[in-house]
Amino acid sequence: MSIQIGALAPKIKVSEWVQGRPIDTTQEKGNVVVAEVFQVNCPGCFLYGLPEIINIYNRYQGEAIRIFGLATAFEDYEKNTLSNLKMLVSTGEVIGETLKALQNYGHLLAGNKLPYSIPFPVAMDVVVRESYPITESRIKDFIEANVEGYRSYSEKDKSIIFDRARQYLDLKKYSAKTFEEYSLRGTPSTIIIDKKGILRHKVFGANNDIERMVQNLLQE
């Protein structure tokens, strides 16, 4: 089931912590929790998403807030791997489309390395090979979780959406547990949980409003 805004946030699924102290999101009552979800092969994550969260991390040192990065994979599975994440964290080296984009913008140091380091804990999402059959009910569940207002669409549009969802699921090789449980739309995405453990925000893309959201929750 998709986790809705206003619901108690379940423990974020992690296959391995590759940097920093592990964070159990269900044991952080009294702290605002911010999880920055990214892919290793995601240029926007490194141009916009991660720098924004790093700035927030640096500004709110000593406050009641826990920030960590969660690498996931919903595409390009051969690049968005645990081994490439470990290389990124240990050496700063980037790969794939991230490498190409940052080279084009002149944002890399020698050796294809990021000009910044990730200062907070980093983990890998639980990514498992698909084993479930593509049934009609599964397709409908997927659509309900990912297409807002689906039931209000015309029957013709519903049929088009259904066919596209089926094609996507037919080609889908793996499932990323946290990415899917939180029904994230892509990367970068930011999961924000309040001091009571309630999911308050799911933000897709770079968003200059994240700091305001964090400030408001810190004041509650």
The general outline is globular
CATH topology of the largest domain: Glutaredoxin
CATH superfamily of the largest domain: Glutaredoxin
Find the count of extended strands (DSSP E, 2+ residues).
8
Give a verbal description of the structure.
With 220 residues, the chain is an alpha/beta fold. It contains seven helices and eight strands, in the order ββαβααββααβαββα. The protein folds into two domains: 16-127 and 182-218, Glutaredoxin (3-Layer(aba) Sandwich); 131-172, no CATH class. Helices cover 35% and strands 17% of the residues. Helix 4 packs across helix 5 (155-171).
Summed up:
This protein has 220 residues and is an alpha/beta fold. The protein has seven helices and eight strands; from the N terminus they run ββαβααββααβαββα.
Question: What's the topology here?
Answer:
Elements: E1 16-19, E2 32-38, H1 43-59, E3 65-71, H2 82-91, H3 96-104, E4 122-124, E5 127-129, H4 136-146, H5 155-171, E6 174-176, H6 177-181, E7 189-193, E8 199-204, H7 210-218
Parallel strand pairs: 2-3, 3-4
Antiparallel strand pairs: 1-4, 2-7, 5-6, 7-8
Helix pairs in contact: 1-3, 4-5
Spell out the key features of this protein.
six-stranded mixed beta sheet; 8 strands; two-stranded antiparallel ribbon; 220 residues; alpha/beta
